[in-house]
Amino acid sequence: MTYEYERVLTPASGLRLHLNENTSGCSPAVIAALQALTRLDLASYPDYDTAIAACAARLRVPADWLLLTNGLDEGIFLAALAALRGSSAATVFEAIVVVPAFDMYAACTDAVGGRVVEIPLGRGFEFPLDAVIAAIGKRTRLIWLTNPNNPTGQIVPRDAIRRISAAASGALVFVDEAYADFCRETLLEDDALDGMPNVVVGRTFAKAYGLAGLRAGALVGRPESLAAMRRAIPPYSLNVCAAAALPAAFGDIAYFDWYVDQVAQSRIMLYDFFERRGVSYWKSAANFVLARFDGQPGRVVAGLAARGVHVRDRSTDPGCAGCLRMTAGVTEHTQALLAALEELL
Ligand SMILES: *Cc1c(COP(=O)(O)O)cnc(C)c1O
Question: Which pLDDT value is given to residue 89?
Answer without folding.
Answer: 67
